Protein: Immunoglobulin superfamily member 3
Organism: Tetraodon nigroviridis
Amino acid sequence: FSFFHSFYLFPFLPSFSFVAGVAVAQRVVTVQGGPLIRTEGSHVTIWCNVTGYKQGTVQDFEWSIYLSSAPDREIRIISTAQPNYAYAVYAQRVNSKEIYVERLSRDSAVLHITKLQANDQGLFECYTPNTDDRYLGSYSAPCEPHRPPETMSISVSPCLRLFRHAPTSDQTLSKVEGDTLQLTCEVSRTTIQHTHLSVGWYLRSPEDAAAPPQELVTLSRDFVLRSGGTYRQRMAAGDLRLDKTSATAYRLTIHKLQPIDQGLLYCQAAEWIQDTDGTWFAMTRKQSDKTQLRIQPTDRDFSIQVSTDRRSFTAGEPLELRCTIEAQNVPERFFSVSWVFSSSPVAVVGPSAVPILGPEYVAREAAGHMTVRKESANVHLLKLQHLHPKDAGKYICRVTEREKTPTGDFIDRSKRSRNVQISVQPLKSNITVALSSNISEVVEGDAIQLTCLVSFTAGPLSVVWHWTDKQGKRPIQEVASVDRDGTVSHGPAYGERASFGEIRVEKVQSDTFTLSLYNTVPGDEGQYHCTATEWLQ
């Protein structure tokens, strides 16, 4: 254990006397205000000034101490005028320059004790020998050190994400570029004085031991968080943090590790006390054991591959294509995936995983016949339900990575997969459709019935009736339809007549459908078609 010293300094104020009606300033010696509290082994300084003396004369300074154990006994320490001024207990320390006086001016000096010892506690006195022809004023001023015990210690214990073992201090850690690192610094103290702590994390280059360490992040004694150099921007971006997680724990977090983070990491804490003059003094500084951090650079290259269970399909079947990105540390990188069919865009999925569809696929996705999604960090899915023959062709996956350079600019790198040729065969069916009428010539007002007979069916049928004029000058119109569930609907131009019962459609049997027109009019003249569709599950 090491110990504190406190110096109680009681500065003398100047006084004045008046002689023969003339004001004469008295000689006054002052020292800095006290008390001072310092730790054993620390470097302590106490200044001493003299005023009111005859100008032009260089002043000398003599320092003594009155120990707490013998408050009436003066022990001489050092003098600027007498080389052998020190008593034996201090002579060796004075001769070795452990104790010395620094002269600031002809009337000001500072006592330095570079390595404070436990027996230095007591009342220090600064004395200035008289240089005038008479004595007037004060020639000395005291200050008193006090020594409470030092109670500060530091240890470090890293807690690393992605590692399951319990890390210990003073170790070597291996991480991959882009990973996250966490280290916790434990700082404990039981000081009875009112003190403040500052805790910081530093990085030292293993190649250049003479180079000064780089400050990563520090919590100052005034509770201000700051970062040094190139790490300031990373702290602003949230990639560098220092969190106080308990009364004694200070956790460093570095997200998105970079090769420049490699080196020796350690925590440094200082305990500060405020002197009576308002200045702060670091009583104790300690460092934790160093942790060797090694960063394995990420291979920035990547490759892509498109896979599917098969490449030949029948109309109506679903198609699933998967685009796999093969690269290091994919979750921490920014990839966009584009699906392309025969040079036409199908969909684009950016880093946010929100798909942007090509114009020809918006309605298809809205109907639930298409799915585009990000299955995992490196796997993207394109699924087409109910393939049509027009879906046959070449599919490719194009991947673009956006990377931020150290200068803050962005660069894009793109790669495309090999073509995946998909073939879609139309459904084969042996059905035949025959259309017949109950009469060949119709007079206005007559009723006519058209019968649509479908043969060789294996599944449910849907039937649509169309009409067009003889000359083909008017567009084809839908008269009525029956879906595979037997639901009847009418075309827009025939809805009103159907509501009056003048148009009727019936599913007579599973393969027989009739269209009946009552109260025919000249506008009903033309060609009628029956289109049958067979549905297979």
About this structure: The two ends are 85 Å apart (CA to CA).
